[in-house]
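Kindly go through the following sequence and its backbone structure tokens. Advise at your convenience whether the structure tokens fit the sequence:

___
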Amino acid sequence: MTVRIGQFAKASGRSQSAIRYYEAVGLLGEVDRVGGRRDFPESAVATMRVIDVAKAAGFSLAEIRELLAEGSRASSTLARLATTKAGEVAADIADLQARHRWLRIASGCECAELTECGLFLDPVCASP
């Protein structure tokens, strides 16, 4: 059974333009056309949920396309992509923690001139 783009948009909570974009970048696979209209398989709604969760986890559209292309072999691709993404997130967290520390210190700055402030002079302090 298939659904028209309007029904698919409503069921997936996406605009028709977003659905057309996802189709254009290869995330929704081949879509049947009947009389010039797109007919999506009902399974496309589940695919959209996968896309939403993967985006929320930080995967790029290219990574999501790779994951979806794997079909039944997707679990090994997911494990590889997730391991890489987890490392990137850990690095981001470390960077944000360093910035937070610097900002906490800077919030108590009483220097008259920033050009003389240790937060900007000391390379250790200057790079959060």
Notes: Residues 32 and 90 are 42 Å apart (CA to CA). The chain has a mean pLDDT of 89. Residues 70-128 form one domain.
